[in-house]
Amino acid sequence: MYDEWNEIAMETVNFVEKFIVYIEDHLRGRIDYDQVLNAMGVEQKSFMTIFTSLVGMTPYEYQQKRKMTELAYELYTGHRRIIDIAKYYGYSGIEPFKEAYFRTFGISPYETEKHFRSLPLLERISFEVVPVDKPRYPEKRQYLESTRIVGVAERFPIAEYSAEAKYHLLDDLNRNGIIDELIRYNNGSIKGIVMHERYVSQGMEILIGVTSTLPTPFEETYTESGDFVIFESTGPAPETVEDIYSYIFRRWRFKEEGELNCNFSMEVLKSTFDVASPGTKVQVWQSLYID
């Protein structure tokens, strides 16, 4: 059985590698990720979760960073005029190109040669997958019946989705006192603030809230019933969650038997709700398909 699950996991990694090749072949164009994944018969939320966990960013973010890196190399070598480079990469003129370049690197294209060595360039991604030898995070397993989550939701087109969006939303809710109000309704089976993501209506939905059976003025959604593996750590939420998912997809899944259900993702903050606090206790609830 272990060999069977290991083979499935390797097929997933190989597919991500092939998708990276697809992105590299289309850096200059606008990729309709929703359409491409539909044509491939791939469930969008599952793929986005796996891709982001393995690569460290969404497909759209990867494309944009790689595109700007290639632009920087073009400017550094100086073989073509800036206007020709801008048009080649799909910009309508120099000004839109300069604005995009400044947003990415904080300098004008004309300053590239001077600052090239300090630019945050992104080379083509390759990654190593290593089976786990010992647990990196404490983990436990729990069966969870479909559970109601109430809170505040935001929805994004696939191309605009970023893992950072949920932390911006969480920070806004915390500063505006909404988190404190949500906690008052937290009488459900999961204690803490839940960050729930799923694919809906050709986009990504992020809902931040609490499990509750009480009537509330907030939006609601329901988790899927199933078995969960719960990983726990402490640290700033964005970095800690990313590191746990990296561990799950690069190491843990190659050791354990069972197929990961990535149709949705769910993280829980158990203590402070300041996303940057090193004292935040973070849980990742990774769903498993039931045999």
From TrEMBL:
Any GO MF annotation of the entry: sequence-specific DNA binding
InterPro entries: Homeodomain-like_sf, HTH_AraC, MarA-like, Reg_factor_effector_dom_sf
Gene3D superfamilies in alphabetical order: Homeodomain-like, Regulatory factor, effector binding domain
Keyword Signal found: no
Annotated keywords: DNA-binding, Transcription, Transcription regulation
PROSITE patterns hit by this protein: HTH_ARAC_FAMILY_2
Span of domain HTH araC/xylS-type: 17-115
SUPFAM superfamilies: Homeodomain-like
One matching Pfam family: HTH_18
Protein name: HTH araC/xylS-type domain-containing protein
Species the sequence originates in: Salinicoccus sediminis
